[in-house]
Specification:
The complex is a heterodimer of chains A (762) and B (169).
Chain A (H helix, E strand, L loop, with lengths): L3 H31 L4 H21 L2 H18 L7 H24 L6 H19 L15 H7 L2 H20 L3 H27 L4 H21 L2 H18 L7 H24 L7 H17 L8 H20 L13 H8 L20 H22 L10 H24 L1 E3 L1 H18 L3 E6 L4 E3 H22 L3 H6 L6 E10 L2 E8 L6 H10 L12 H6 L21 H11 L3 E7 L3 E9 L4 E9 L2 E6 L3 E5 L6 E3 L5 E5 L2 E7 H5 L12 E7 L2 E7 L1 E9 L4 H4 L5 E6 L5 E5 L1 H13 L1
Parallel strand pairs in A: 2-4, 9-18, 13-15
Antiparallel strand pairs in A: 1-3, 4-5, 5-7, 6-7, 8-9, 8-16, 10-14, 11-12, 12-13, 14-15, 17-18
Chain B lengths: L1 H14 L7 E7 L2 E6 L3 E6 L13 E7 L2 E7 H4 L12 E7 L2 E7 L1 E7 L5 E2 L13 E7 L2 E6 L1 H6 L4 H7 L1
Parallel strand pairs in B: 2-11, 5-7
Antiparallel strand pairs in B: 1-2, 1-8, 3-6, 4-5, 6-7, 9-10, 10-11
Classes of the chains: A alpha+beta (762), B alpha+beta (169).
């Protein structure tokens, strides 16, 4: 259930956005027309953004806070007349509103504003860019206004965060521009444009029936406006120009200067078609090709001129007549300019027609259409699809392993069920892959983080990203984003030394931070490694002792065990708390989140050479291949990937140490035996090692032999959680429902080994 | 006119949570009859195979498969510190949901759904020594009978305080 505060925040903010948009546009217009901004309107917008920011901050929606904060800073500049409300800024602020709208939707759906970071990031970057432009720190790239001189006052006025970021910004800029038009952005641009044009078109069509409806005009206006903004942003100047002109017409209608007459709407619709074709062309070959560009411009200018003159008072004067005829002529010609090529020649011999012949459209223009490579699907729909597939896997097992079939041989049935099994598997793989997204998204965010933090800490750091294409589950990606931030922070704050220190000990002055994602066994590894000073074993031990986490100082603990202490809540070796780290919260978050996705963290560290954290995450959260085994009446599923072999032991291969730990010799290895029935308090068929079976499982470098009564068979297990109520149980990673409807617990080999060890130690 | 609207509003309200108010689902554990607020109750199912889960408190008997959903089952008897007994054909699992997770309550026998107006509910007894008494939300009086009304939240989530109370006793 979504929190009530959040709900009211959402609805309030939605209202605010609806409110703010017209103001923004009004402000932009008045600024362009008269060069002045109405301070009251600016204040109003400022206040609205501010209140959203405040509430969002209170509720912990940080993305919203970030976005609105930047918007506020820009508005502050506008208010102080350091920045102008030119097209770029107006449009940018409008898009900020759009983004906030999206974030609100996100919050409503998921209770968190995560998931739109990329969009937020890009808007924020733009805002920051504009802020710097406003402050006169970088030249405006757009057709620019003279830069205001009061840079100094700005510095003092736009306080806190901004100041810190300023120095960082300069370097960021280059990166931003490079990022501007990636293929993905182009893809998104064409898709969004398609949607926006759709919106404009349907609004226009409705408008035709109901010319008085202001809402519809606004709707069309908004759609067109965002389209224009996108065009400008992506650098399609012709489209931007044309859409701007079209917008002017709509604006005239909006402000009542012109009427939404059928012909006007027709012309507007025609423009929508032109845009759509252009977009199709862009999605086709990435080039902005507009047929009859000059003609279209003339055409639009005529209409604009007409609307300007069509003051209600002078509506019927002959002056107006002429442009109107021209306008229709032009429109007529335009229509004719479309393929099929002109067969029946126009009766008019006009100037326009000559132009038209010069700019004959390319042949393929009409046949092109926008090819969409994806569809947007509601995540809940996707999840229920995946759930259904999960159920299907269970149902399939129920049928093919039906107890009624026991003891019979059905050749045909076997063949069909094998076939069914294959299809179900494929279906399952396919559905699961739908949820997979590349890690690039979360990795990329680190670029900025590293940049900011390193500047702040005065360290030189080179960030390397590897395996960005590696795909992970969407849920996983959401859950590892935070841990990644903490780990990267730690690496920068604690790990990598300042440049002087580095050069003093003969290292490169620039520290290296590597982020890598890769497949390893049945897991995905996210590796964060640095070449800094490494973890300080002594210091951790000492702190651990102080905090009473370990019984005595300098105990015989393995490095891994020592390092795991850092995941304890409140544990920090930092002597002072900085605003980056030191409170000992971060690593706890890391651990909690990784545990949520059944992952593990390995820590490797060599003093003076750096440390390496490996987040090991199961490939899928939903389905595993398992071996079904029986102990007494209980049935357990052991993940197939962790099983090395299963053996029957002879008595003479068993050694028992004085503390009661049994070891079995398998080839040249001595493997500890885990008696599952003892750990789980159940009655087995037999307690004798040689009467049961030993399943040798491996976890990291350790192995163990789990004593069971019988192997039932292999099966695909749809992993189900053991209810929040039950919580995390050591040695159990979840459960699965078997073909006969019974529940089988899934063993977590790592946890099991640890549990057995602690039992022996105790 | 305004009265009409008021009546209408009341009607609408009635269709919502209000129908659940003061309604209790009652069941037997041992000699007494207990009630829980009906809004928590999802369904009642017969006893079925419970898969044991290790490392659980004694009163959590394990998990069951409720049409594909795995839910834990708590034995109310042992939660109350009463002696456990064999399950029979009257033993039922009352599925309740709280904080979005469903939990089954093993009870000796289900009995009824009754209305007990707030005015007929007495506060829980102040002096109590039995560990189970902390789950009591109130005592409902109906037709000369007393039903012990339970606080579901506490029943499910209240941590073991027995040790503490046994020391103070």
């Amino acid at each position: 259930m979504i929190d009530e505060n959040a709900l009211s925040f959402i609805s309030e903010s939605r209202e605010m956005i609806d409110e703010v948009e017209p103001y923004l546009i009004e402000l932009g217009q008045s600024s362009i027309e008269s060069g002045e901004v109405n301070p009251e309107t600016t204040n109003l917008i400022f206040r609205l953004f501010h209140s959203v920011k405040g509430t969002a901050g209170f509720l912990g929606f940080n993305v919203v806070v970030k976005v609105t904060h930047e918007a506020e800073t820009l508005l502050d500049l506008v208010r102080n007349e350091q920045a102008k409300m030119d097209h770029t800024n107006t449009d940018l602020l409008c898009r900020t509103c759009d983004l906030v709208g999206l974030l609100l939707n996100q919050i409503e759906a998921t209770e968190s504003d995560a998931g739109l970071e990329t969009e937020a990031e890009s808007i924020i970057k733009e805002l920051e860019h504009r802020i710097l432009v406003g402050k006169g720190q970088i030249p405006d790239t757009a057709p620019s206004e003279p830069i205001n001189q009061k840079t100094n006052t700005v510095q003092t006025k736009t306080d806190d965060i901004q100041k810190e970021n300023d120095s960082a910004e300069q370097g960021q800029e280059e990166f931003d521009l490079k990022m501007l038009i990636s293929p993905e952005m182009m893809q998104r641009f064409t898709e969004e444009s398609d949607e926006q044009l759709q919106q404009v078109e349907s609004a226009l069509l409705d408008l035709e029936n109901d010319p008085e409806d202001n809402e519809l005009i606004l709707e069309a206006f908004r759609g067109l406006h965002s389209f224009k903004g996108n065009c400008g942003f992506t650098g399609f100047s012709k489209l931007e120009k044309l859409s701007h002109k079209t917008e002017t017409i709509l604006d005239a209608i909006k402000s009542g200067k012109a009427k939404a007459e059928p012909e006007t709407i027709q012309s507007l619709l025609h423009m929508v078609d032109v845009f759509r074709q252009a977009i199709a062309g862009i999605s086709h070959n990435g080039k902005e090709e507009i047929d009859n560009m000059p003609l279209l411009e003339d055409f639009l200018d005529d209409i604009i001129a007409a609307t300007k003159n069509t003051d209600p008072a002078v509506l019927n004067q002959p002056k107006v007549e002429k442009p109107k005829v021209e306008q229709e002529e032009a429109l007529y010609l335009l229509r004719k300019s479309q393929p099929p090529p002109l067969v029946e020649k126009s009766a008019f011999e006009t100037k326009s027609e000559k132009e038209l012949q010069k700019t004959k459209p390319p042949e393929q223009a009409k046949s092109r259409s926008i090819v969409r490579q994806d569809i947007r699907v509601d995540l809940t729909k996707l999840d229920s699809l995946i759930n259904l597939v999960g159920e299907l896997v269970i149902a399939e097992a129920m049928v093919t392993r039906n107890p009624d079939l026991k003891g019979y041989e059905f050749e045909n049935f076997e063949r069909s069920s094998t076939h069914l099994n294959k299809i179900v598997r494929d279906l399952q793989d396919m559905t699961l892959s739908v949820r997979m997204i590349p890690v690039a998204g979360i990795f990329r965010k680190m670029i900025r983080l590293v940049h900011d933090l390193s500047t702040k800490a005065g360290k030189k750091i080179e960030l390397k990203l590897l395996g960005e294409d590696t795909e992970i589950d969407k849920t996983v990606s959401e859950l590892i984003a935070d841990p990644l931030v903490h780990l990267v922070r730690n690496a920068i704050d604690h790990g990598i030394e300042p440049p002087q220190e580095r050069t003093a000990i003969g290292k490169k002055a620039t520290g290296e931070l590597l982020l890598e994602a890769k497949h390893e066994g049945g897991e995905i590894w996210i590796v964060i490694s640095d070449d800094g000073r490494g973890l300080n074993r002594e210091k951790i031990l000492q702190k651990g002792f102080e905090k009473g986490l370990i019984p005595e100082e300098g105990m015989n603990m393995s490095d891994q065990e020592v390092f795991e202490l850092i995941f304890q809540p409140g544990f920090s070796t930092a002597d002072k708390i900085t605003d980056v780290s030191g409170r000992g919260v971060g690593m706890d978050v890391v651990k909690k989140n990784i545990e949520k996705i059944k992952g593990h963290i390995d820590i490797h560290s060599k003093p003076g050479q750096g440390s390496k954290m490996i987040l090991r995450i199961p490939l899928t959260l939903a389905i595993i291949d398992g071996m079904l085994v029986r102990v007494g009446k209980a049935q357990y599923t052991i993940p197939l990937l962790s099983i090395r072999e299963s053996i029957q032991v002879e008595e003479d291969k068993i050694t028992t140490t004085m503390d009661g730990q049994e070891l079995v010799q398998v080839r040249n290895e001595l493997i500890p035996v885990v008696r599952l029935y003892e750990l789980h308090n159940i009655v087995p068929d037999s307690k004798n090692l040689h009467e049961g079976l030993l399943v040798i499982v491996e976890y990291r470098d350790e192995s163990a032999g789990i004593l069971i009564d019988e192997i039932i068979g292999e099966q695909q297990a749809v992993i189900k959680g053991l209810s929040n109520y039950v919580g995390n149980i050591k040695g159990i990673s979840g459960c699965t429902i078997m073909g006969d409807g019974e529940i089988s617990l899934i063993l977590d080999t790592g946890g099991l080994i640890k549990k057995a060890q602690s039992r022996v130690a105790a | 006119m305004s009265e009409e609207i008021e009546i209408l509003n009341e009607d609408l309200y009635d269709d919502g949570e209000d129908t659940m108010k003061d309604r209790y689902f009652t069941f037997h554990v041992g000699k007494e009859e207990y009630g829980i607020e009906i809004m928590y109750v999802i369904e009642v199912i017969g006893i079925q195979k419970i898969t044991e889960v290790p490392d659980m408190p004694v009163f959590v008997k394990g998990v069951i498969n409720l049409r594909g959903q795995v839910i834990p089952v708590m034995d109310v008897r042992s939660r109350f510190g009463m002696e456990e007994r064999q399950y029979d054909e009257r033993t039922c699992i009352v599925v309740v949901t709280i904080k979005d997770s469903a939990i089954g309550l093993l009870v000796d026998m289900v009995s009824d759904v009754i209305d007990i107006p707030e005015t007929d509910v007495d506060p829980p007894p102040k002096i109590s020594r039995k560990p189970g008494s902390r789950f009591i939300k109130g005592l409902g009086k109906i037709d000369n009978q007393v039903k012990i009304l339970l606080d579901v939240q506490k029943l499910l989530y209240d941590e073991e305080l027995e040790q503490v109370s046994s020391i103070t006793e």
